[in-house]
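Q: What residues go here?
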């Protein structure tokens, strides 16, 4: 590739700065009392452009249709394959700006903007993640930049890797608030203050999911608080101050998956790529690969996605999961263009409740109606892990993992001993984690037997986690999540909120586990922040990851 032109990042320079405007600040202003979502200004005096595509993944040779709205006279589109060596694949100069209003229910029913451009993908285009960058100039000379993406799937002709990377786009969608709502908050309901159980993929992605500047805070208490310090939520404060989505740090390519791709490509691991939508509708894509991997935050899955993974592993496949928070069932409709999840209100609001399709209830996998523990698929459960190392969730807790079975092949060549901690300086154990109910025998952890949970699970390393924030009082203390998730999840799993249920699920652990299933294997490093061990150069995390990928690809 000596003749490849030097890549020029379209993100260079100052961008997205609105005209200065003085406004009052009130003493009770707070990011948590004023939740925000991204939407176009629709002001012709402040030019902007927003774009989305008619799908999130394509085969080489497919036509991509772009839908846009713009208050600029003209704007520019650049598309590049992101990775260790970014490569521009398509550019269009001076697209005429056409304004279209954004519907009030765009988050639910899509934006329905006009077609701005169409492009037929080259027949030999490599599988991967392609950023779509839409840019226009403002009168003050500062550019406005908006990011979208699509994925190119591998085909028999373009397949080149032994590892198939599945992007957790169900989780990305659940946190995407563009147009007014996601699965966590929004403008639904009579008071316009409720999340939406229905989300459209025919809209842009909120700022921060596709692209982030270096140094954007992560969900981790860094630095750890000193005694008496008020709880901090740096990612929320930064997003509020800089015009990014309030959940940018919780999910997305920029926060998680990209870090893994950069490390893997540098290490010589080639990756082909699909989305969870492809996993749902095109299960045959997995069959050509000895290893499937999923990274970061994969909280939301459909029933069909899980069936595909279990069939793949039982047939001899290998799942390397460097991520966590396996918690909610979703449903996809309209060929994947709509995502459904009622979460804590599923038993009252989901149309399948009380029907012969109640197993598809969009609630927690451990819900007393669904009863399909995540451990069946990935070896751990979201309900027995949850939060670590931020806010009021053990902010001074351990930010690495304690080794319990150092002779396991995953630790080969690391020199780690029983009770050693790895990844602590790099903060690999933070935000959300998965675990199991467990017991100790002779100093070693063992899973407690649970119906539907494989008996081949082996706990290799672990650290404590909690489901509710501890709330010691202090000067100026304000907490964020508090106990809301704790109570909601207990009600999902047990059917009611009782002191016994709250006590049973308040404390848990995040775990690294290995299990066999049929002819295949699963290795889960169940912490969202595992990628920080790769990015920040922890030799133990890097060696463990190489061991897993080498074994699973027979490299």
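A:
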């Amino acid at each position: 590739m000596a003749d490849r032109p030097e890549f020029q990042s379209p993100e260079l320079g100052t961008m997205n700065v609105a005209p200065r405007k003085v406004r009052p600040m009130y003493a009770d202003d707070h990011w948590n009392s004023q939740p925000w979502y991204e939407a176009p200004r629709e002001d012709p005096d402040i030019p902007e452009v927003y774009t989305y595509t008619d799908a999130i993944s394509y085969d080489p040779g497919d036509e991509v249709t772009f839908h846009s709205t713009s208050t600029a006279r003209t704007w520019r589109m650049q598309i590049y394959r992101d990775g260790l060596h970014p490569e521009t694949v398509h550019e269009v100069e001076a697209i005429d700006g056409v304004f279209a209003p954004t519907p009030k229910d765009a988050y639910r029913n899509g934006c329905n903007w006009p077609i701005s451009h169409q492009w037929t993908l080259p027949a030999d285009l490599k599988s991967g993640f392609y950023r779509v960058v839409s840019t226009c100039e403002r009168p003050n000379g500062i550019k406005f930049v908006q990011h979208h993406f699509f994925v190119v799937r591998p085909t028999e002709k373009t397949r080149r890797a032994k590892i198939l990377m599945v992007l957790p786009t169900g989780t990305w969608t659940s946190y995407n608030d563009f147009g007014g709502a996601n699965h966590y908050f929004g403008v639904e309901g009579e008071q316009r203050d409720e999340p939406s159980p229905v989300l459209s993929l025919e809209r842009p992605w909120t700022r921060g999911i596709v692209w982030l500047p270096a140094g954007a805070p992560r969900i981790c208490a860094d630095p750890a608080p000193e005694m008496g310090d008020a709880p901090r939520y740096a990612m929320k404060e930064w997003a509020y101050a800089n015009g990014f989505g309030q959940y940018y740090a919780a999910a997305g390519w920029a926060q998680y998956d990209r870090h893994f791709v950069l490390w893997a490509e540098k290490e010589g691991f080639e990756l082909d790529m699909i989305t969870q939508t492809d996993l749902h509708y095109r299960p045959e894509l997995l069959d050509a690969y000895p290893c499937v991997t999923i990274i970061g935050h994969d909280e939301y899955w459909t029933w069909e996605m899980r069936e595909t993974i279990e069939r793949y592993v039982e047939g001899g496949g290998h799942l390397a999961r460097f991520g966590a928070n396996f918690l909610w069932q979703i449903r996809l409709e309209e060929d994947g263009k709509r995502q459904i999840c009622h979460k804590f209100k599923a038993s009252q609001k989901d149309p399948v409740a009380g029907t012969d399709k109640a197993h598809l209830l969009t609630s927690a996998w451990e819900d007393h109606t669904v009863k399909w523990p995540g451990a069946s698929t990935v070896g751990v459960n979201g309900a027995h892990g949850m939060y670590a190392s931020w806010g009021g969730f053990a902010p001074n807790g351990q930010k690495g993992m304690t080794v319990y079975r150092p002779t396991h092949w995953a630790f080969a060549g690391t020199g780690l001993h029983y009770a050693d901690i790895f990844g602590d300086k790099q903060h690999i154990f933070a935000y959300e984690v998965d675990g199991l109910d467990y017991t100790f025998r002779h100093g070693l952890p063992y899973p407690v037997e649970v119906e539907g949970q494989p008996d081949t699970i082996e706990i290799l390393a672990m650290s404590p986690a909690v489901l509710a924030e501890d709330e010691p009082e202090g000067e100026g203390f304000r907490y964020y999540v508090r106990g809301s998730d704790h109570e909601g999840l207990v009600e999902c799993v047990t059917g009611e909120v009782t002191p016994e249920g709250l006590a049973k699920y308040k404390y848990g652990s995040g775990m690294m586990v290995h299990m066999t299933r049929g002819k295949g294997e699963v290795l889960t490093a169940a912490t969202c922040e595992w990628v920080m061990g790769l990015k920040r150069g922890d030799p133990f995390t890097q060696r463990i990851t190489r061991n897993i990928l080498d074994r699973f690809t027979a490299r």
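A: Context that may help when evaluating the design: The first strand starts at residue 49 and ends at 53. The longest helix spans residues 539-553.
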